Amino acid sequence: MSDLRLQGLELRRIAMPLVAPFRTSFGTEHARDVLLVRAVTADAEGWGECVALSGPFYSAEYVDGAEAFIRRYLVPLLRRSNGSVYALERLFEPLKGNPMAKAAVQTAVLDAHLRASGLPLGDFLGAVRDKVPAGVSVGIMDSIPALLEAVEGYLAAGYLRIKLKIEPGWDVEPVRAVRERFGDGVLLQVDANTAYTLADADRLARLDPFDLLLIEQPLPEDDLRGHARLAGLVRTPICLDESIVNARAAADAIALGACRIVNIKPGRVGGYLEARRIHDVCAANGVAVWAGGMLETGLGRAANLALAALPGFTLPGDTSASDRYYAQDITEPFTLDGGHVGVPTGPGIGVTPIREVLDAVTTATEWINFTSVS
After folding, report:
1. What is the value of pTM for the model shown?
2. Which of the following is catalytic: 96, 102, 131, 265?
3. Is residue 265 annotated as a catalytic residue, yes or no?
């Protein structure tokens, strides 16, 4: 029987330049400052990726804070843990917030345990597919011609769905231009990242004629009632992202009529165990889900693909190929095949970093040893 207890934890920071700037309503990303967590047991090691951004823009978490939180608050709990990932989740629960930090540690521990037992993450979660349909997220551009050129390239590459980032002043006309250029057959949706208020309902309703799959997170994350009201004022389905922080929040949003679709991001909800619970709540209520992305490296992308292979994920997610964001990924690159990306089949998350690539992008490492503590 494998020994689940941790021997130590490595915190590793890497710098990953993006192939092109990625602009949303809350700012522009030129590179990713990524925190990786490596959990080591007697039988295996596992990896987790913290998806917190460099500043508290998408959420209250940011990467420096996540690293400090892991070191100061999670490590002491890990020293007391019996190694069970479910027990770990319960240990973390009294600590408020910080889901991205918790998710990174939980994923690393879960990955190590699954590798030791030879079980792929997809099988552990309940995956039913060996590949998932791939969508791509297109940031806010400097001009509509630049947007059309980018969309044309992604469609030519084989992506099955296009998501346009929007904000007030960059919404109706870009969507109109994409529809007119590429036709009604393109699966198209938009993401506002909380950039609007209920007073913008009339403007958001102007998107209805373009037959969008959904409008993602138009209002602030704490405004479920506003989303419920907005849902009655627009025909396009409302999808929630930032508002869905756990399965209870998903159940509340569904009960209020605040959404018809949910975007599930494991980092946002504290890990893959809670992500699966949200999937189950939505499936029980007939609410479609899809897998969001946070510009992950191959480590985070591999785990997301396993989640996206669950039966309730009926819409293409932000499960793009590695070259959408990175010229050189830290794992073997994920590629498109007929508009789909394959789900890793190896134990755990199914991929490992390429050591020389990982070392080349590493900016700092810290090893925390557990074996010397009784």
Report:
1. 0.94
2. 265
3. yes
